[in-house]
Specification:
Shape: globular
Radius of gyration: 19 Å
CATH topology of the largest domain: Ribosomal Protein S5, domain 2
CATH class of the largest domain: Alpha Beta
CATH architecture of the largest domain: 2-Layer Sandwich
EC number: 2.7.1.148
Structural class: alpha+beta
Number of strands: 12
Active site: 11, 143
Protein name: 4-diphosphocytidyl-2-C-methyl-D-erythritol kinase
Helix content: 25-40%
GO molecular function, one term: 4-(cytidine 5'-diphospho)-2-C-methyl-D-erythritol kinase activity
Catalytic activity: 4-CDP-2-C-methyl-D-erythritol + ATP = 4-CDP-2-C-methyl-D-erythritol 2-phosphate + ADP + H(+)
């Protein structure tokens, strides 16, 4: 069997509406996903026993030391789950090359799980399971199905029930990473705490109509005005320095800005590729981020290369 390599994108949440806490411990979400051109690669290699290795992509400042190499690694969990369903031994070495920030709110771990599902399905010639990969991915994490799909989509439930959204043209982004990560469960818990402290009655998240219209029209200005993230106050509470980064991006001319997912990566929408280049340089010069990177979207989901 020859090794199989899959490339998989990061995501930014254009809207992350967080509803009430459910009995199962999750929240109902209205989650508008957008796949962007920061990619991890996962290579599945035949082996005598399951293992994971991780390296940073060239020029990527990612904290690979924080990526688990044991049973907590989402990619290996995905490979084991697929092996169980395929009736094979999970004897595979997963070689992960990372450019997506670790614990940065851009679903890097979920992306690697999606890539591992596709790579192992191809490696083990389990083609009959390909249509079931999104369902299997949802057992690993709520963001895994979108990493398989890519482009732009609305996610309901925990975010795993996806409907593609029409998108015209290309949107240009600047992402500012921060030192250290933020735990997604901790950010959700802080969101619940802040709401309880304010005595809020948590409503169903608002509709995503304006975002959908902006995506369909390819209207960057309208999209920037519609960006929203209910987890942002919690992320700022846990990491107050992010407020300075967001303020800097707005002052430097971003069309819109928000914390990406549970953070701490912050996302800034630009009007064009040229605008993104200038904004990235200005943000880097402002000293408000560990690293500043440019990307564009939408892009396809997990793809064999």
């Amino acid at each position: 069997m020859k090794p199989v390599t899959v490339r998989v994108p990061a995501k930014v949440n254009l809207q992350l509406g967080v509803g009430p806490l459910r009995d199962d411990g999750y929240h109902d979400l209205v989650n508008v996903f957008h796949a962007v051109s920061l990619f991890d690669e996962v290579t599945a290699v035949p082996a005598d026993a399951p293992s994971v290795t991780v390296e940073a992509a060239p020029d990527a400042q990612v904290a690979i030391q924080n990526v688990p190499l044991d049973g907590g690694n989402l990619a290996m969990r995905a490979a084991r789950l697929l092996a169980e369903r395929a009736g094979v031994e999970p004897n595979v070495e997963l070689r992960i090359r990372k450019a997506i920030p670790v614990a940065g709110g851009m679903a890097g771990g979920s992306a690697d799980a999606a890539a591992a599902l596709l790579a192992c399905a191809r490696l083990w010639k389990a083609d009959l399971l390909l249509p079931a990969l999104p369902e299997l991915g949802a057992e690993i994490g709520s963001d895994v199905p979108f990493a398989l799909l890519g482009e732009s989509a609305i996610g309901l439930g925990r975010g795993e029930r996806l409907t593609p959204l029409e998108t015209s043209g290309t949107f240009h982004w600047v992402f500012a990473t921060a030192d250290g990560g933020l735990s997604t469960p901790a950010v959700y818990a802080e969101c619940d705490r802040l709401r309880e402290a304010r005595g809020e009655r948590v409503p169903w998240p608002p509709a995503y109509d304006e975002l959908a219209k902006a995506l369909a029209a390819g209207d960057a200005r309208a999209l920037g005005a519609a960006l929203a993230n209910d987890l942002q106050p919690a992320a700022l509470s846990l990491r107050p320095s992010l407020r300075r980064t967001l303020d800097a991006g707005r002052e430097l001319g971003a069309l819109g800005s928000l914390v990406s997912g549970s953070g701490p990566t912050t996302a800034f929408l630009a009007e064009s590729a040229e605008h993104a280049a200038g904004l990235a340089a200005a943000l880097a010069g402002a000293g408000v981020a560990k690293q500043v990177v440019r990307a564009y979207g939408p892009v396809p989901g997990a793809t064999v290369v």
